[in-house]
Specification:
The protein is an alpha/beta fold and about 400 residues long. The chain contains 17 helices and 9 strands.
């Protein structure tokens, strides 16, 4: 989504209360208008708990809220305002958090909040609602809302600003993504207990595999191939020399900011792999030209080594465009993983270049090599930004991957 601009903020909708600002108004609500004091905590819906968590994140950034403290705050809130509507309770909740807010600690009163407080509040709201910092757009927000802050106070601004962010396309996208992930969780078998696969590991060949595992709550840690664009041959080369070339900072060149297709990623490229294999090798998260990126990648490699060489059972997944000889690629990678780790089940999904006509994606077992399986898939949609445009592609793919070890074909 593009950043909201001061121009967009100049014609806001009618002011909404805090209940609306936190997405609790409109249509039928499961929230009771009043909460009888004797049943205070037992009757509180989860939505009100979410309201408190969200307000706490926005107003006290970086301060955790344990469940015990959450219950205590809710109990105090209800006991002070028995039988009051949720609008009033939400208003009181915000007021109770404001005086103790780190952002407001240096101010005598909310109405006197200056630029430093404003910046802190904008940053906290962006992080809580959009999961990112505001960047340079904070200047436009200050130009637009300075009169409101100075004349009506930080509380009035906060109510309006939360509503403004929550009406944005970016917030709607995040909400849809969260809802999609809930649906995904219902469509894929739950993780098994003792005796099942203990971890699911991405072996590339780009960010899609890792991102899909994360969306389905299968990813527990980051590995060196999670956010690396590389061919299966490059990945085998990294395993063969035990990551020596992958971790060598002299092998990398930074990608200029203006040349990145997405400014958040495309950090650097491994020139040695590119010279050897004739294909781009891009690191999207770890900038291997600086110390921070090098330390991050080193930690990813150590986690990968420890996991693959440990006793627990693990499923290693690689999703790659189909090449000229997917069977050979699959068998070479499977043999290498057998020598690198233990208790490994490798599943490779070879994506065909054309797409299925529907109504479902097409996937079938193509080759068996010991405990390892090669699947070939014709998806309904292309991959876009590490995600299939049709959720059904991911659901069918992951269900097939999880079932693959038991297939005889």
């Amino acid at each position: 989504m593009s950043e909201p601009t001061a121009g967009e903020a100049a014609s806001p909708a009618a002011p909404r209360g805090l209940r609306a600002a936190f997405g609790l108004s409109g249509g039928e609500s499961t929230l009771p208008e009043t909460i009888p004091p004797p049943e205070a905590l037992r009757a509180l819906p989860e939505a009100l708990r979410d309201l408190l968590r969200g307000a706490h994140r926005a107003l006290r950034p970086g301060q955790p809220l344990p469940e015990a403290e959450l219950d205590a705050q809710l109990a105090s809130l209800v006991s002070v305002a028995p039988g009051r509507g949720l609008d009033a309770m939400a208003e009181q909740l915000i007021r109770s958090l404001l005086p103790a807010s780190t952002a407001l600690a240096s101010t005598a009163a909310p109405a006197t909040a200056g630029r430093d407080v404003f910046d802190a509040m904008v940053a906290a709201c962006y992080q809580a609602l959009l999961a990112r910092p505001p960047g340079e757009v904070v200047e436009a927000w200050w130009a637009e809302f300075q009169p409101m802050v100075e004349q009506q106070g930080i509380e009035r601004f906060l109510t309006h600003f939360i509503a403004l962010l929550m009406s944005s396309e970016e917030f709607a996208t995040l909400v849809r993504r969260s809802q999609d992930n809930m649906v995904r969780g219902q469509l894929v078998p739950a993780l098994r207990g003792v005796g099942g696969i203990a971890s699911h590991v991405s072996l590339g060949t780009d960010g899609f595999t890792s991102a899909m595992l994360k969306r389905f709550d299968r990813k527990r840690w980051s590995g060196p191939f999670d956010w690396l664009s590389a061919t299966p041959a490059m990945i085998r080369a990294a395993l063969t020399d035990d990551f020596e070339t992958l971790l060598d900072p002299t092998a990398y060149a930074a990608i200029p900011f203006e040349d990145r297709p997405d400014a958040r990623f495309w950090r650097c490229r491994n020139l040695r792999y590119e010279d050897r294999f004739g294909h781009p090798c891009i690191s999207h998260v770890a900038d291997m030209t600086d110390a921070v990126g090098q330390l991050y990648m080193a930690r990813c490699v150590e986690r990968f080594r420890a996991n693959l060489r440990g006793l627990s059972s693990k499923l290693v997944l690689q999703v790659a465009p189909e090449g000229s000889d997917p069977g050979r690629e699959f068998q070479q990678t499977a043999d290498l993983l057998d020598s690198f780790g233990r208790n490994v089940t490798f599943v490779m999904v070879s994506l065909l270049p054309d797409h299925a006509e529907g109504p479902f994606p097409e996937i079938e077992p193509a080759l068996r090599h010991g405990p390892h399986r090669l699947l070939r898939m014709r998806s309904l949609s292309p991959l876009d930004n590490a995600q299939a445009l049709d959720m059904l592609d991911e659901v069918v793919m992951l269900r097939a991957v999880l079932a693959a070890p038991g297939l005889s074909g």
